[in-house]
Amino acid sequence: MTVPARKPDQKYTYGDYLAWPDDERWELINGVPYSMTPAPSRRHQAVTGEIYRQIANYIKTNGGPCQVYVAPFDVRLPKGGEKDEDIDTVVQPDIVVVCDRKKLDPRGLRGAPDLIVEVVSPATASKDKRDKFLLYERSGVREYWIVEPQPKLVTVFTLAGGRYGRPDVYAEPDQIPVGIFPDCIIDLAAVFADLEPDADGEGEE
Fold first, then answer.
1. Is residue 125 classed as helix, strand or coil in its secondary structure?
2. What is the 3-state secondary structure (H, E, C) of the chain?
3. Among the residues of 119-161, which ranges form H helices?
4. CB neighbour list of residue 25: distance below 8 Å, 6 or more residues apart
5. I want to staple 125 with a disulfide (CB 3.0 to 4.6 A). Which of 59, 107, 120, 144 is the partner?
6. Which of 183, 127, 116 is nearest to 154 (CA)?
7. Could you read off the pLDDT of 55-90 as tens digits, one per residue?
8. Per the domain annotation, does 142 fall within a domain?
9. What SUPFAM superfamilies does the record point to (predicted)?
10. What are the φ/ψ torsions at residue 143 (nearest 5 degrees)?
């Protein structure tokens, strides 16, 4: 999808983003727009939905201030104290966990969440592994998961001293401890259960 009347070398802000058509999905990273179309595949949604379900069930059972959201959900990441309309980065991670409710407002979230999960596809892998990695590290996201439905791997980065250190890598049928919670475990056997090629036969996420 192209961006009508928007120059490719121009930088945009959240104020511009709010004026774009409601039926289009975009992310802004340092002022650069990235289209979120086409819609995610069945495989992508199945993996996202199961991780969300396990985290949501844990929060419901154990209570506490944390809340979990699934895309589309706007996360504004300011570089400082700029007004909302001047923020040049807004992303829609697949799953977001927020434990500081003061960061939540009717528009979504302003500031770094505690946990972000991105389920990658061939079209988004480089952005998730490079651009978003650097963005989430800079913004102070405590835990960042990169989930690859094929080859059924999850890479977990944990913030320490303002940097993401050496990641932990998990594969089916491992269980992943969620670092921001004392005893929450994600069962990858359930996450990756019955993943078959999509209807087009290509098996893309």
1. helix
2. CCCCCCCCCCCCCHHHHHHCCCCCCEEEECCEEEECCCCCCHHHHHHHHHHHHHHHHHHHHHCCCCEEEECCCCEECCCCCCCHHHCCCEECCCEEEECCHHHEECCEEECCCCEEEEECCCCCHHHHHHHHHHHHHHHCCCEEEEEECCCCEEEEEEEECCEECCCEEEECCCEEECCCCCCCEEEHHHHCCCCCCCCCCCCCC
3. 125-126, 132-139
4. 35, 36, 37, 72, 92
5. 120
6. 116
7. 999 999 999 999 999 999 999 999 999 999 999 999
8. yes
9. Restriction endonuclease-like (SSF52980)
10. -145, 130
Number of domains in the chain: 1
* CATH code, domain with 66: 3.90.1570.10
Question: For 11-64, what is each residue's pLDDT tens digit?
Answer: 999 999 999 998 889 999 999 999 988 888 999 999 999 999 999 999 999 999
Domain contains 99: yes
Task: Identify residue 170 by its one-letter amino acid code.
Answer: Y
> Which two tokens mark 204?
């893309």
For residue 13, is it within any domain? no
By residue range, what is the domain housing residue 152?
38-73+93-191
Using 50, 70 and 90 to split pLDDT, how confident is the model at 177?
A: very high
Other CB atoms within 10 A of residue 89 CB: 20
Nearest in space to 111 (alpha carbons), one of 125, 96, 121, 133: 96
Q: Compute the residue count for the chain.
A: 205
